[in-house]
């Protein structure tokens, strides 16, 4: 990963000297969070071969917790839990290029497009416990619009991983930014973290809100406000 | 029947024994060799394996202590195995000349689905008709905690709560309703976000008398 980052830093420095544009620099420096080396290390066709090790690990966990792995309800639980975990982390073998599927269209539209209330489910990388909530995405096209469901699919790629909500928000924003080169991207996530609700401080009603504003959303407060107002309304 | 006779002697809830080892495995309880910290480190190793088999880099900063945190979290989510009704009731049963319905509703409940090891959560509503003995109200919530902090199936969880209250208080009737969302259905599989599962157990007067049952349901579920 260090080698990977160095390449990105060099690109960033060159871009800065050639464009001398502040917002471009910000977008480039955020690029490194999108393409982390470990995150495409799992190939989909390897999943089947990795199942036995996962199953053995889950059997061990059940036994150490004091359960009887031979009782009827738990007999196939290691297999189910292993498959469930693979599904919940399937984002590792998906890339934006795959899912965009060329659904980018030339359209003479440069007003805000918002897709809000996208349900998001992810796993906290610190406790391996789910967190979930809603994502609101806004972008201002620069003559290129994207199929609307593709925004939701981009959310799926990055959320079906071991995540931290801050990074997830940034990855979605930078992913859209790289694919479309729009005038601006805004992503807001509001989620409830089971690691805080089911254990630890046990605060049932707490919510965590994170946002990433790129391009014109970062520079122009009025644009940002319009997005926040439109995405909050019931 | 010998089986029932054993249950009465042990004072154990007979529904706990439907799935024989939903309590702690006896051989685990007896074993003095495995201390708690040993178990924790075994679970940690298992989680390290899981992380690397999922394709993650276990040495990156965010994941370095994750196996330990996940193991401790899992132990917390299954702490109900170590608790018994006798411990938590703490003699908080009082003689009171009251025989009208007592309801404690909207008790937040969190459990783990025993089939996928993924959380399910929701609310429990409990009612009982005292037979001259009332219980401290928080104890009803603590009984929910004992049984929910285990690997569970919602049907069994509901029954265990109802029969535990029934045995502890010997009331004229007990009703328990649980409404929960199962992440195994929401986050994966059929992925139905708004589906919720409702289970109920009615004992005593709540089972025999439809009017009593209706009163309970009107006061809890119908808004």
Structure in a nutshell:
The complex is a heterodimer of chains A (234) and B (223). Chain A is an alpha+beta fold and 234 residues long.
Description:
The complex is a heterodimer of chains A (234) and B (223). Chain A has 234 residues and is of the alpha+beta class. Chain A is 49% helix and 21% strand. Chain A contains ten helices and seven strands. Chain A has helices at residues 2-19, 22-34, 47-64, 77-88, 96-100, 148-159, 165-180, 194-197, 216-219, 221-232, and strands at 104-106, 113-124, 130-140, 144-146, 162-163, 184-193, 208-215. In chain A, the strands form two sheets. In chain A, strands 5-2-3-6-7 form a five-stranded mixed β-sheet, with helices on both faces. Chain A is globular. Chain A starts with a helix and ends with a helix. Chain B is of the alpha+beta class and 223 residues long. Chain B is built from ten helices and seven strands. Chain B has helices spanning 2-10, 26-30, 36-53, 66-77, 85-89, 137-148, 154-169, 183-186, 205-208, 210-220; strands spanning 93-95, 102-113, 119-129, 133-135, 151-152, 173-182, 197-204. In chain B, α3 (36-53) packs across α4 and α6 (137-148) runs antiparallel to α7 (154-169). The termini of chain B are far apart. At the A-B interface, α3, α4 and α8 of A face α3, α4 and α8 of B. Chain A: Pathway: Cofactor biosynthesis; 7,8-dihydroneopterin triphosphate biosynthesis; 7,8-dihydroneopterin triphosphate from GTP: step 1/1. Chain A: One of its GO terms (molecular function) is GTP binding. Chain A: Residues 55-230 form the GTP cyclohydrolase I domain. Chain A: It holds the Pfam family GTP_cyclohydroI.
């Amino acid at each position: 990963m260090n080698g990977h980052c160095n390449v990105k830093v060099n690109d960033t420095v060159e871009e800065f000297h050639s464009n001398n544009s502040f917002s471009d620099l910000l977008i480039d420096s955020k690029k490194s969070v999108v393409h982390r080396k470990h995150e495409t290390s799992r190939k989909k066709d390897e999943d089947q071969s990795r199942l036995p090790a996962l199953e053995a690990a889950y059997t061990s966990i059940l036994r150490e917790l004091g359960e009887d792995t031979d009782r009827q309800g738990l007999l196939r639980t290691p297999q189910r839990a292993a498959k469930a975990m693979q599904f919940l982390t399937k984002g590792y073998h998906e890339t934006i290029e795959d899912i965009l599927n060329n659904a980018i269209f030339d359209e003479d539209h440069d007003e805000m497009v918002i897709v809000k209330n996208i349900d998001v489910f992810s796993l906290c990388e610190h406790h391996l416990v789910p967190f979930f909530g809603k994502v609101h995405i806004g972008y201002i096209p620069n003559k290129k619009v994207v199929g609307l469901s593709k925004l939701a699919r981009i959310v799926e790629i990055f959320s079906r991983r071991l995540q931290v909500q801050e990074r997830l928000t940034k990855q979605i924003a930078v992913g859209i930014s790289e694919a479309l080169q729009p005038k601006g991207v805004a992503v807001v996530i509001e989620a409830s973290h089971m690691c805080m609700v089911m254990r630890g401080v046990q605060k049932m009603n707490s919510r965590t809100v994170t946002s990433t504003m790129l391009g014109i959303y970062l520079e122009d407060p009025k644009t940002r406000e319009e997005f926040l107002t439109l995405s909050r309304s019931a | 029947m010998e089986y029932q006779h054993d249950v009465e002697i042990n004072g154990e809830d007979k529904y706990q024994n439907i799935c024989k080892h939903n309590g702690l495995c006896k051989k685990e309880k007896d074993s003095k060799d495995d201390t708690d910290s040993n178990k924790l480190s075994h679970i940690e190793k298992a989680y390290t394996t899981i992380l690397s088999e999922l394709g993650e880099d276990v040495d990156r900063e965010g994941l370095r202590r994750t196996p330990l945190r996940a193991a401790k979290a899992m132990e917390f989510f299954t702490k109900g195995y170590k608790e018994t009704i006798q411990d938590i009731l703490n003699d908080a049963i009082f003689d009171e000349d009251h025989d009208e319905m007592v309801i404690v509703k909207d008790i937040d409940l969190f459990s783990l689905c025993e089939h996928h090891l993924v959380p399910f959560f929701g609310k429990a509503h409990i009612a009982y008709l005292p037979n001259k003995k009332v219980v401290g109200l928080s104890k009803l919530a603590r009984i929910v905690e004992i049984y929910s902090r285990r690997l569970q199936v919602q049907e069994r969880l509901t029954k265990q709560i109802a029969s535990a209250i029934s045995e502890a208080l010997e009331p004229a009737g007990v009703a328990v309703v649980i409404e929960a969302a199962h992440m195994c259905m929401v986050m994966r599989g059929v992925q139905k976000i708004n589906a919720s599962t409702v289970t109920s157990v009615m004992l005593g007067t709540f089972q025999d008398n439809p009017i009593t049952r209706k009163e309970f349901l009107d006061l809890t579920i119908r808004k």
